[in-house]
Amino acid sequence: MAQTVTLGTSPEGPRPSYMYKVVLLGSMSVGKSSLAYRYVKSDFRELLPTVGCSFFTQILNLEEATVKFEIWDTAGQEKYQSVCHLYYRDAHAALLVYDIANKQTFSRAKLWLEELEKKFLPDEIVIALVGNKTDLAAEREVTTEEGEDFARTKGLLFMETSAKSNHQVNDLFMAIVQELLRREKEKASKPSPHGKVTVDLRASSTSTGCCRS
Amino acid sequence: MAADVHKKKSWEVPNGSLAPGDGQHTERSESPTPGLAQGTEPGMEHSSPRREARGGKSSSSCGLGPPQPCGRGRWAHSSPAGPAPTGCCGMGRGGRSPLHPSPSMGDTRTDAAWPVVPGAGQEGAMFVHTRSYEDLTSPEDGAAAARSPEERRGEPAEQSSMEQISKDFSELSTQLTGMALDLEEEMRPGKEGKLEPSPQTARRDSVLSGKEEEDVTMDAWRLHRKHVFVLSEAGKPVYSRYGSEEALSSTMGVMMALVSFLEAEKNAIRSIHADGYKVVFVRRSPLVLVAVARTRQSEQEIAHELLYIYYQILSLLTWTQLNHIFQQKQNYDLRRLLAGSERITDNLLDLMAHDPSFLMGAVRCLPLAASVRDAVSSSLQQAKAKSLVFSILLSGNQLVSLVRKKDQFLHPIDLHLLFNLISSSSSFREGEAWTPICLPKFNSSGFFHAHISYLEQEMDLCLLLVSTDREDFFTVSDCKRRFQERLRRRGVQHALQEALRTPFYSVAQVGIPDLRHFIYKSKSSGLFTSPEIEAPYVQEEEKERLLGLYQYLHSRAHNSSRPLKNIYFTGPRENLLAWVTNAFELYVCYSPLGTKAGAINAVNKLMKWIRKEEDRLFILTPQTY
After folding, report:
1. B350 — pLDDT class (breaks 50, 70, 90)
2. To probe the interface with B, which of A37, A41, A48, A113 has the most B CB atoms within 10 Å?
3. B221 with B242: CB under 8 angstroms?
């Protein structure tokens, strides 16, 4: 399983560096881009619908490792769903985002999960269910328990966030990093039968980048 | 979940076969009727074209008058011995087929004439040859193309049959919809309340699109200057510029009934002219596009705008997918697929009301010193990848540089759609976008993948890299990095930044006192130049009025039955001059106090100035990879 990609040699010696591809999925206007924007730029603004997909990178210097996030923020519009698989292919983590004030988006997130389950083995991808827009608590249609229960039965991470009021957005991405790193350690203690495949990110265009089928 | 049609992956542009494969786009290569070479430069000797005397009356029978408070504007008659351009009344282009009044450039001009046309690069055009505006508006299906709108309008017999038709139609529509008698009736308050919105309505989020849905029963809704509706052949609403589509579904049903009624007679409805309104229909199976306008645009121009809307939809879906969907399911609700993109269409309509690019069918360049532009272009050129077809650098809606694959040309319409896409979404400001996009004039059957990003946070400089390979994100992203690196190394960033600070030049630079504004289009390059619109056109309405005047001159110059070469228009608030040749089009606005002789002198001066500045105003040496 090619879960990690080294970022070349780390100048700080033993501290490993990892590259993780994170994809945001969910219905239109649930706040995927806002979450990414809040996390990467620490800011919030009213954004227009994403066209196709936006790509961000974020580097985290943690004590145990350097982590580079490649964040693929997809468009929720139906017409882009034919190309969505391009974006989530080979992802290490997926955020299934719904709007707590819109029940329909919660059902849509469940459908996304079904789709991911078809494409990934459970230990291949970290999936987090994210109820966004807690600032709209007054109009809440999906209770926290509902989200939690569903996440528990499916073995997903769960978090309620608000990109607008910066509620738990960082925590969300930290939880994902922790889970990814935990799995990394687990794997190191019992090596995968396929061996570890490392790919140099900065290699030429012919390399098997993370977007190759 | 996505409908089954999305699972098919056949819409991708297969690598290596960029040209359209289907017969649907053979129109692209059509060679317009070669006409007489009429284009000459100022100062050069004029041939003596046949002159037609023209009264102050508008020639079209649809009641389109000069776009001035009636009676004030008049057509000046020519003085026989003026300096070039001689004779400023309309001069017919004798002997040309009405369907192809203006040949596209590069077809008839000799090479000797090439260098004297400002703005025309000698090393070949940047775009696929700029098709004339008439080519655009002539239908793709041959059946209806045989008749020009003028032919149809001119016949009094048709007038009465039109009345008959509308009467018949009233009855028909009653049967079909069971409620509406005619459009007017339909728009009256109280009718729409009965309609229930469809369950999977594509709600236009007011936060996201930045506007509230209007109540279509309100007077304010009816007062809009131009409504645009898109519907499917089943009469289902696809798009409405104002008001929600659901509320308008019966109106759209009536529109479809009108279209079908005439089609049943092996005829096609083009427009209805009544009460200051023009209702223009454009049929592009499986869609019908309708505009209800009380602007002074000609029917042709409104149809031209509707075609842009059609192409805009194609750019999101591809022609192939659009047809496939409706073959599978005739009553498919296309709004599902277009959800979230309405603002792109809204923006296109707004842009067309303000930006002369669409009228001109050409692209404006950012004024930039030739050395800087060359450095930018070669940096773009060097940052290439195998799958790249076009690298485009733009600022606002102005082109900075364009590099293309050899033998591949970008049509101005496609470029306009790209400009519109970028200007309608703030989401490109952050990160790097990677999106499928169809360039309908290039190849309407497949998607390209566009990498869109802004170069610097605070700089309005957007880089657009169009690739054939959807898997190539990282390669293309690397091209961007390489391009930026080269820019830095060449040290042109500062000059570029400086140029961005003054994206428009002032007409005062030309040094002609009476000159207020002008548009000069070089037909061969598909580029035009125009100064900033300054006083007295400060307010938005005034700007639109000026563009309206240009639109009017343009429609007179390109009238399919009686095209004009030279027009001198004197109005109460400004005088205008239009001059259309094979090589260029020039539209000039003067203060109302000047004389015609002065205006003609000014044209000569202006042309000299453009010639002098051309390497700053145009891209003279288009690059290929």
Report:
1. very high
2. A48
3. yes
Using DSSP bridges, classify how beta strands A126-132 and B388-395 pair: parallel, antiparallel or unpaired: unpaired
Phi, psi (deg, nearest 5) at residue B484:
-65, -40
How far apart CA B551 and CA A163 sit, in angstroms, is 46
Which residue has tokens 């532009």? Answer: B373
Contact criterion met (CB < 8 Å) for A211 and B473: yes
Task: Kindly report the backbone phi and psi dihedral angles of residue B547, in degrees, each rounded to the nearest multiple of 5, phi listed first.
Answer: -60, -35
How far apart are alpha carbons A52 and B433 in whole angstroms?
7
Instruction: State which fold the B208-339 domain adopts.
Output: Beta-Lactamase (3.30.450)
Q: Does B107 score more than 50 pLDDT? A: no
pLDDT for A152 equals: 93
CB B620 within 8 A of CB B600: no
Enumerate residues 549 to 608 of chain B having a beta carbon within 8 A of any beta carbon in chain A: none
pTM score, whole prediction:
0.74
Q: Does residue A109 belong to any structural domain of this protein?
A: yes
Contacts of B7 in chain A (CB under 8 A): 82
In Å, how far is A195's CA from the nearest CA of chain B?
25
Q: What is the pLDDT of residue B120?
A: 55
Is B386 in the A-facing interface, judged by CB distances under 8 Å?
yes
In which domain, by residue range, is A70 found? 2-188
Which tens digit of pLDDT belongs to each residue from B532-551?
A: 998 888 888 899 899 999 99
Instruction: Tell whether A205 is covered by a domain.
Output: no
Residue of B434, B463, B465 for testing the chain A interface, max A β-carbons within 10 Å = B434
**CB proximity B433 to A under 8 Å:** yes
In chain A, the number of structural domains is 1
Domain B208-339 matches domain B368-502 at the CATH topology level: yes
C-alpha distances out from residue A43 to A32, A38, B61, B214, B430, Å: 14, 5, 58, 32, 12
| Residue A25 covered by a domain | yes
Three-state SS annotation for A122-144: HHHCEEEEEEECHHHHHHCCCCH
Would you identify the CATH topology of the domain B368-502? Answer: Beta-Lactamase (3.30.450)
Contact A80 B435 (CB under 8 A): yes
d(CA B309, CA A145): 46
Q: Is residue A210 part of a domain?
A: no
Interface of A with B (CB under 8 A): 28-29, 33, 36-37, 40-41, 46-56, 71, 73, 75-83, 86, 111, 115, 205, 209-213
The residue among A39, A45, A54, A87 with the most chain B CBs within 10 A of its CB, best to mutate, is A54
**All structural domains of chain B with their residue ranges:** 31-145+166-178+504-625, 208-339, 368-502
Highest mean pLDDT: which range of B70-84, B114-128, B514-528: B514-528
Decide if A200 contacts A6 (C-beta within 8 A).
yes
Widest CA span in chain A: 52
Number of A/B CB contacts below 8 angstroms equals 122
With CA atoms as reference, the chain A residue closest to B421 would be: A51
- Identify whether the C-beta of residue B493 lies closer than 8 Å to the C-beta of residue B487: yes
Strands A17-26 and A93-99: parallel
Percentage of chain B modeled with pLDDT above 70: 66
Cβ of residue B144 closer than 8 Å to a chain A Cβ: no
Check CB contact of B469 with chain A, cutoff 8 Å: no
Q: Is the pLDDT confidence value at B315 over 90? A: yes
What is residue A6's DSSP assignment? -
Pairwise CB contact (< 8 Å): B478 & A29 = no
